[in-house]
User: Fold these one by one.
Assistant:
Number 1:
Amino acid sequence: MNNKLKRNIQKAFAAPEPNQQEKVRFLRSLPQPQIGMFRFILVQASYVRKSSRVLSCLILLLALFCAYSISENTLWVVSAFVPLLGLLAVTESTRSMAYGMSEFEMSTRFSLKSVVLARMSILGLINFVIIAFLTPMCCIGNDFSLLQTGMYLMVPYLLTVNFSLWIARRVNGKEAVYGCMCVAVIVSGINTGLHFVTDLIYQEIYTGWWLVLSVFLLIELAYEIHCMMKRTEEYTWNLSLTD
């Protein structure tokens, strides 16, 4: 390679001067492809694992089967599997932190906080649609109203999500996933056991208490999500100190 060609290459790929103003000017000169919020959400949705989608579809198929064959027990069978939806939502949303990929995702254009919030919103919306679809199906063969049935499905789901987020904030690595799995199994087991005391706690006079519990769990969920967002910010700050 002759000297003239070397000089031309150096001139074409000249680095900016080592000062803050030149750095900002150089970064602004780089092409930045535009991406809208809708496109961003679609991209994040594509990262949801196929196993999670398959399991969600299996729960729907199970509800259809129960509604057709054992209609009087559809609510109790489906409500025992609803905690799995909460488990999937939390483990998918916090997967990057659980498997040590947070630093990699922080190097992308969008912040880790935006990525985690987007995934939580996507999975939460999907699960809400699934539960809304399951609610009228679980009314078949029961004397419960639509509101009661919806709460009997939402409470196990919200309990699983709240406790799983609490664990995910305090436990690092794959141990957090195992802890979330234990929560889902325990909530599912308790919900199955409550089926045998239907006359005691599922009476219509206790509907108000179930409603209060549902609202409380929704508020607690908002608080847990807020704490999770703060944790991602602290994680970002801690990693920036190691640069």
Note: Confidence is low (pLDDT under 50) at residues 237-243.
Number 2:
Amino acid sequence: MTVLYRLAADAAAIAARFGAQAAAADPWAGGTIAPGQFAPVLTTGREFVAGPRGERQPMRMVPRQWGVPPPPAAGDPARGVLTVRNPDSPFWIGNLRNSEFRCLVPATSVMVWGRVDPTTGKRRQLWLSPTDQPLFAIAGVWKDSEVPSFALLTCEANAAWRQAGQQAMPAILPGEPEVWRTWLRGDWKRAEALLVPYPSSLICGG
């Protein structure tokens, strides 16, 4: 499971990359994001305005907390849900079918725990990123809880993630604006089709 990612770009660079609107005084200067922390996400929703979304609703960069409050049946209500492993779950499907709750989560690398080193008995942190996208987007979804929060969508692991001993990986999206629009505005069938492993040949790190 993804428990750390980096976004080594400031608010202006993120807005320019994705064609989004950002507040002039947005304080994001770049850094590493851990569970429970706030980070920028990109949305075309109308969270603060009643009524349906217009076709010209712009993409906006807003802060959200990483980790959605879990369902009541969860054992630890204080531990946020970081990733979506089963998008068909009743806990997620309503938000995912409503495209206003989908978001892009910008990142520059993702941490994955590697396999146990037999000589030290410890697992090493591996930071992986696409070679063709220095600043990329992970498919995300947010919930309007007491504190608006988000989770990352996952998909089957590619060879790079499997080599590290992982069965799933973040759903990294291709870098085309049309793909981003599909995730943010498309019907669920088209959006769900984007949840596929990123080519392992385009992943580097160590």
Note: The CA atoms of residues 99 and 127 lie 30 Å apart.
Number 3:
Amino acid sequence: MLLKTRGIVFRTVKFGETSVITDIFTEEKGLHSFIAGSVRTAKARMPYNLFQPMMVVELVAYFRDEPNALNRLKEVRASEIWTQIPFDIRRGAVALFMAEVCRKCIQETEENRDLMEFLLDNLRWLDSTNHPIANLHLHFLLQLSGFLGFQPQGDSDPDAVLFFDVKEGVFYTEEPLHADYVRPNQSARMLALLHSPLEQCHEVVMTRSDRKALLQKLLQFYQLHVPGFTGIHTPDILEMVME
């Protein structure tokens, strides 16, 4: 069948002399792999820059709705034009982080329009906002976990002294008996981010060391709840470029 849909590029690897294999989360069919020929040439009909992580594209593909099928792209064009992500090192680093996390977590090969809109909203905000973006990747992890089925549970109470149990995914008033938990000062920031709208996540006051510590715990949280969630490399890039 001929598939016409919108999609978000998660990962692209070079294949042969001029081709690529790319993982794209599509609006109509979920996550699938596609092969695109002759894209790494000067006169390519489908330019290589369209296959960068978190590019949003309109595609036409010869599609087989079968597990692990490699589908051939017929046409690709940009659906959204980013004005800052490709040129701002911090925004680009956050987009790469989002792409790597998504590729590790999202496996469904069927339509999920709510998840698609969530990803688009985050990318549009990342590209357009004039507010600081230093908290955005943390907010993204917390909200994405809801779509994946293991979002932390807890009410936003600035006066409560709470510990976040990384294993259980729950905030408790008593310190857990194991080492996999977040202390109350970080738990308070985590709850504030969890309950903040995307457009206000920059208002949660955190230092650079706060963000690093919370990111480490959130990645551990993902490792405990997502099979195969290992080998995440982009946090090192974020640490280098974020203030």
Note: The chain has a mean pLDDT of 93.
